[in-house]
Specification:
By secondary structure, the chain is mostly helical. Helix content is 64%, strand content 0%. The longest helix has 18 residues.
Length: 113
């Protein structure tokens, strides 16, 4: 696992815990939207450019393809794969990955393993 993957995974887990309001280990469709917008907000505050978050329709459409157990909600692993797919789309995905890594390093550091 590279630095970007590690930091992105850490950030996804942090956001997931923050928006899992009922602490059941799953985030419902509305919580997924809040989580994605929160993740984009964190990244956009730390990057020189602005990345527009996906629309509500795009989030809901993509949500269905990452809900492996078809329960209408995402667990932490499903959410991370979902968020990574949204953040890695676009023409400059490689450059964005480097920028996101730098941005996440400037965020509060992950706890030592």
């Amino acid at each position: 696992m590279g630095l970007f993957d590690y930091l992105f995974s850490w950030m996804c887990k942090r956001v997931f815990r923050k928006v899992d309001y009922n602490s059941n280990g799953l985030i419902e469709p509305l919580e997924v939207e809040v989580a994605i917008l929160t993740l984009y907000n964190i990244v956009n505050k730390r990057l020189p450019g602005w990345q527009d978050p996906p629309t509500r329709d795009a989030i809901q459409a993509a949500l269905k393809s990452f809900d492996d157990d078809h329960n209408g909600a995402l667990d932490a692993a499903e959410f991370e794969r979902f968020a990574k797919s949204l953040m890695s789309t676009g023409a400059a995905a490689t450059q964005a990955a480097a920028l996101v890594s730098a941005a996440l390093l400037r965020a509060s550091p992950p706890p030592a393993a």
